[in-house]
Amino acid sequence: MLNIAVIGCGYWGPNLIRNFMQAPDWQLVWVCDADEIKLNSVMTAYPGVKKTLRFQEILDDKSVDAVAVATPVSTHYELASQCVSKGKHVLIEKPICQTAEQGEKLVRLAEQHAVQLMCDHTFCYTGAVRKIKEYIESGELGQILYYDSVRVNLGLFQSDVNVIWDLAVHDLAIVDFLFSCRPSRVSARGVAHTDSSLENIAYVTLEYENSFIANFHVNWLSPVKIRKTLIGGSRKMIEWNDLVPAEKVRIYDKGITLSAEDKKQKSKLLISYRSGDILAPCIDQTEALTVMVKEFAQCIHENRPPLTDGKAALRVLKILEVAQQSLVCGGSTISMSW
Amino acid sequence: MLNIAVIGCGYWGPNLIRNFMQAPDWQLVWVCDADEIKLNSVMTAYPGVKKTLRFQEILDDKSVDAVAVATPVSTHYELASQCVSKGKHVLIEKPICQTAEQGEKLVRLAEQHAVQLMCDHTFCYTGAVRKIKEYIESGELGQILYYDSVRVNLGLFQSDVNVIWDLAVHDLAIVDFLFSCRPSRVSARGVAHTDSSLENIAYVTLEYENSFIANFHVNWLSPVKIRKTLIGGSRKMIEWNDLVPAEKVRIYDKGITLSAEDKKQKSKLLISYRSGDILAPCIDQTEALTVMVKEFAQCIHENRPPLTDGKAALRVLKILEVAQQSLVCGGSTISMSW
Amino acid sequence: MLNIAVIGCGYWGPNLIRNFMQAPDWQLVWVCDADEIKLNSVMTAYPGVKKTLRFQEILDDKSVDAVAVATPVSTHYELASQCVSKGKHVLIEKPICQTAEQGEKLVRLAEQHAVQLMCDHTFCYTGAVRKIKEYIESGELGQILYYDSVRVNLGLFQSDVNVIWDLAVHDLAIVDFLFSCRPSRVSARGVAHTDSSLENIAYVTLEYENSFIANFHVNWLSPVKIRKTLIGGSRKMIEWNDLVPAEKVRIYDKGITLSAEDKKQKSKLLISYRSGDILAPCIDQTEALTVMVKEFAQCIHENRPPLTDGKAALRVLKILEVAQQSLVCGGSTISMSW
Amino acid sequence: MLNIAVIGCGYWGPNLIRNFMQAPDWQLVWVCDADEIKLNSVMTAYPGVKKTLRFQEILDDKSVDAVAVATPVSTHYELASQCVSKGKHVLIEKPICQTAEQGEKLVRLAEQHAVQLMCDHTFCYTGAVRKIKEYIESGELGQILYYDSVRVNLGLFQSDVNVIWDLAVHDLAIVDFLFSCRPSRVSARGVAHTDSSLENIAYVTLEYENSFIANFHVNWLSPVKIRKTLIGGSRKMIEWNDLVPAEKVRIYDKGITLSAEDKKQKSKLLISYRSGDILAPCIDQTEALTVMVKEFAQCIHENRPPLTDGKAALRVLKILEVAQQSLVCGGSTISMSW
């Protein structure tokens, strides 16, 4: 059993606390928050766990194996660096840091101290995304041609970040998790409809080698909530509708086939269309955070990077930065190298 | 009653022929096609209509008031120019010409000869689009914020045009019809997944003044057919799902409201969310082509431009050309002036 | 403010406790359960409320204005009778008693003691059912022709009651609430597929004067969950799909019209079909139990029967008994008089 | 190649004519109708086929192998009997005759003359129903527990038959086709809402041995069109939604399992719920009538009864008669023996 401390009792902290409490791999020993009222209110349900207003207490406790950081993003780098420097494994909420520069330092620091650095890309631990990853890795879809996501609703307008940092960050984390390739070109277009200058509707496009393209439509001003992703493969295709609990993932045995001779004469394309069964596989209903905290324990036990490690979080952050840059430049396509 | 001649018996011609035959405003007098077998096959059902292989016969017939051109696009300019020069009104299938340059000449020629030049933007004559136009023009939606269309399916790969010219052309025609403003910036990104160099998936973005943005996702490689458009207004919003016959158009009395004091202090946005009734208005089921041929007659009788006139078709063509240019340049945003 | 005591901390009791705690009209003073462990576990969250294992303590407390009975149905009659006899208003979970005979005695007793007797027909206090009642009472639907409900899912097989007592009881309570007329004939057919002799699929039909018919399909063995009700009126019709949160109730301006002359000559029916707008009105999202406990307070203050009073509960119970009798007799239609 | 004659050019006749014309197994030689105008109008498209107003001409033509009867039902028995007596195979539209008595005579006559007697139960030849039959016969569903069909819409009110004879007849034909067992008890309830005495909404229940139950809800006054059937098996279940072209049939690997020990003690039912994949198999899109006319040819070539033979049609007719009798008696359950 590993000893964990949670820093931050705000919006997401209580979910982490509940899951660490229930996890057989973890012993929750400390919870820290600068706001004493909030801290006490959250912790009445967990009388056996130590509370503190001082982060230093946790740093000084050598029995603490790992720390989960669920504080505002502006504090991530400072808090995580100190934990890492004390040899503690760290789990951080996304985005991992405010800038890619900070992220890179943190990743290097964790390597130097030989501790695991994990980012809570929650969606990657859902049954739906794990099932989709299975299909992609098995080769059943064939070559991946495109990834198209629509993530729109009448959303909570954020006062500090635009819709890309609020919603597209999920898609970026998922795409990073599902595919081993990295985008070579990024662009983003969007508009702000309120007096704030924060975009509330945006389109982000990632272009990869081999004609793979990913596009995300994110929107806080949609009359209907949509969470629908299409993944096109050369052999099969996936429709992931996260709002249909009974069948979130559907595999279509459907596509086109170019016959051998056609390939020679481009001018006379002769394409045949295949249409087969549709399968909605049974999806594991385990709460994503439960799977996530288990992975955090396992990567430490096995001394290997977690599925969503600091490097993954850094890649997501880098793309966010480039997308933001493109948005500011009116949608210019910006090249990325990895 | 006006006398009409139809040129071209291919894919679309028979639909025009059937509708002109049924229209009380029109007398179908001639049908012309260079392919005698096809011409005879189509016209057995209409023994009272004259057939010809020679376009010149129609040009020479002074009783012909108007000509409908449903031939391959490469012949549009030549055929339409001759008709116009003979003082005949002309209806042309879309796209109106191969190039904007041709289109401009044709529009000018029609003005010189004082004949009506109409383009068959069929979607603009559907009950759904006409109903949406009513809502927009009544001001019930408030200020229009965005237009987002998804037009995807496992499509017929075309051998001569890419997915933008095949599918996005519909969206461009609809947007031109619905809104009086014109895009100031256009961009397009897409990829080709077959050996042909024709893009089969693309994203086209139009940016307007006043933060109005329109985006079209067109795709020939989707496992599911989707024809869904969201139109966001500051007061109400529309969802148009063309695949749900019983309720294609839905009006959401839903949106956000910024309270007066908030407008002053951007830093503390206080947005309230409204959620009211949803209305699916009864949509006129008349076939779009029936409405279109009636409009063609009426604009001639009333000596006014048709709803989808040559200028509208030319605007669509210009945007197509610029989108194509952006696509070739890897998604650059290109400014347009009108 | 009225003082309330809740008897029973099992499945439903905690929901009542939570709602009475939050209600401005009520002061929760006592909670009673024979199981001390369960009682303590539920009540840790409410340290200010008195707990007891002895029901008599509540009976003896003259400050208690009303009692909510959420115990097993076999104890309802005994507990409620004693409360009523002490002059306390009573709210009972459904079904109100085990037999209609008990129910009748209880209703009479409440009248003698001039206290309000209310049954927790929760569905009647949902926003959806209240909205439907509005439409029916306004006359907008015209004459009501039929009520058809499908309430099926892969359900929890009950070990003591069949699917009619488990699921159709909801429909009976709703129909009693919506319509002032009473069924004159009842029938039920069903089968048991497990070794228990309890039916897990059943069809219940109520026939009324004036050709109004109501039918309920209840099923614990359906692969899909369905909660769909159609209500046909001579002017408009309603579709109530309880599983579509955003638009549970839809009003169709749709139906048939018999023209005047046709009415004379039955042989030549000339019916015309109307098809108008579809409206999904905004539905109040307040939790049904919150509305229910408020009604309980109001009926006491206003000294009037509650919307779902003992008599309503008794009517539901009588129909359940007759339906059960029909089921046993192989589906015979049984007449009822009121 | 077999020679066929079609009698009747009304609503359905032209569909038969078109399909017999296209079928490689058949040579359409004669079409007969008493209405000369209708006959000529339909047959202009088929100049090579002989027309006649006199049925006798067909009877006398020894080259005619088979006759398809698509005339009003009141003439079925007389026309079919004469054809059979002349040794011609006969295909009849449903219902096969006006009364079961006639039907029985006709079946016997066909046996005596050793000709095939087939009824056009079109639905049984759709890809969806054939796929469902495959699943049932393979045993994959386990023991069949129930069949529940909803067939409702704002329907064409018929002036001569009620909704059972118009709509439930399809369900009866399908159920007869899918299952080898026959109902032992039948009941029906319904109401008439127009001045005609013909029921426009009805519920029909068939009860079989082994707790198999089938129920049909048919309704001409529904605001929405529904064509949905649930088939419950002990191992898997089917949802057939005929209005979703892309996935009409869905197989749910879902159900309940009684563990061995539970079976002994009914009082303590311990049921476990299984929830697995959902499969929407690819459905053959061939037009049902094309498959049907092929089966008619094959059963003659192979000298075996067709899939929907006279006996099947007679069973459907008998159940219709008993359902009608139950309807008249106010819903009494009526026993049937086979």
UniProtKB/TrEMBL annotation, chains A, B, C, D:
Residues 129-238 form the GFO/IDH/MocA-like oxidoreductase domain. Transmembrane segments: none annotated. It holds the Pfam family GFO_IDH_MocA. Residues 2-121 form the Gfo/Idh/MocA-like oxidoreductase N-terminal domain. InterPro entries: Gfo/Idh/MocA-like_OxRdtase_N, Gfo/Idh/MocA_Oxidoreductases, GFO_IDH_MocA-like_dom. One of its GO terms (molecular function) is nucleotide binding. This is Oxidoreductase. It comes from Desulfomarina profundi. The lineage of its organism: Bacteria, Pseudomonadati, Thermodesulfobacteriota, Desulfobulbia, Desulfobulbales.
